[in-house]
From TrEMBL:
InterPro entries: Glyco_trans_2-like, Glycosyltransf_2, Nucleotide-diphossugar_trans. The keyword Transferase applies. Pfam families: Glycos_transf_2. CDD domains: Glyco_tranf_GTA_type (cd00761). This is Nucleotide-diphospho-sugar transferases.
Length: 310
């Protein structure tokens, strides 16, 4: 590559991704907005991942390829590709997703036109491992909203896939990045939510592939040796609340944001409420609605115990 700093850095962390990797890389290299670098970090794969990546690195000067000497886990590898980036904007890319050719350019244009926005995403088509269409996700943007309103929107339109949007690099550097915990994408999304607005391109430009893993396998993929947890959603909600309380927002805004977080959990985020009830059924099953609300608040505020599995 020449010495010109690209406008966009795309980071593709990958481990044993040979099944879909060619489709993903070719989808990225086919973007009609070409001022980007593609940083690929192979996490000591044991399949043909590195060989495939090397083919593209040889043929396209925008590709920067690195190979870890050992498997660092996905959390460290996601952070590595960002820390090596130079662009004004950054986008994470998974080795099994796809993008319309206009995706990157339209997101950059939207951010350039909205200096208050920290991130741009787009409507998203979910697909299964065979590429069959699943649900269509119409993403809700947060332009013009304050921090409390943005917390409400995150809790009611939650989806980790939003993290694969185009983000301002200087804003992303203010976060904790990807942490080795259950639901690190959601924790990071909460940090970003408190830092600013998200805008979107109202078109289906991103195709997100669902690959379901057992909990133990999921946790060890985040960080080798990371213990599983018995109450993953309870721990995740504690981490999300902690992000609010440890943010740099004024105390009055923190209090309002925390209250909105808990109100959404009880009244609007039925998925979260169901998970909390399932994980804590012994403590919560006999309570009426008024006492249930108090008990759930106590559970989420109960320190930083992540409930490691024995």
């Amino acid at each position: 590559m020449d010495n010109k700093i690209p406008v966009v850095s795309i980071g593709l962390p990958v481990y044993n991704g040979e099944r879909y990797l060619r489709q993903a890389v070719e989808s990225l290299l086919a973007q009609d907005y070409g001022d980007f670098e593609l940083i690929i970090a192979d996490n000591a794969s044991t399949d043909s991942t590195f060989t495939i990546c090397r083919e593209y690195a040889v043929c396209d000067k925008r590709v920067r390829l690195y190979q870890n000497g050992r498997n660092l886990g996905s959390a460290q590898n996601f952070n590595k590709v960002f820390n090596m980036s130079a662009g004004k904007y950054f986008m994470w890319a998974a080795c099994d997703d796809l993008w319309e050719p206009s995706c990157l350019g339209k997101c950059v244009t939207r951010l350039e036109a909205n200096p208050a926005a920290i991130m741009c995403t787009c409507d998203t088509q979910h697909m299964d491992q065979s590429g069959n269409k699943l649900g269509l996700q119409i993403v809700a943007e947060t332009a013009g909203m304050d921090a409390v309103q943005r917390v409400h929107r995150l809790m009611t339109y939650l989806g980790g896939f939003i993290l694969y949007g185009v983000i301002r690099s200087d804003i992303l550097r203010k976060t904790s990045l990807v942490q080795p915990k259950f639901g690190p994408d959601i924790i990071l999304l909460m940090e970003l939510t408190l830092l600013g607005e998200v805008v979107k391109v109202p078109e289906i430009l991103f195709f997100y592939r669902f690959v379901v893993k057992p909990l133990d396998q999921y946790m060890s993929s985040i960080e080798p040796g990371l213990k599983s947890v018995t109450k993953p959603c309870t721990g995740l909600l504690r981490d999300m609340r902690r992000v609010i309380l440890e943010s740099g927002l004024p105390d009055s805004v923190k209090a309002a944001a925390e209250n909105e977080f808990m109100e959404c959990l009880m009244l609007e985020s039925l998925h979260w409420k169901k998970q909390i009830l399932c994980e804590n059924i012994m403590e919560l099953s006999a309570l009426d609605e008024a006492n249930l609300k108090k008990a759930i608040h106590h559970l989420i505020a109960a320190g930083d115990d992540s409930n490691p599995a024995p």
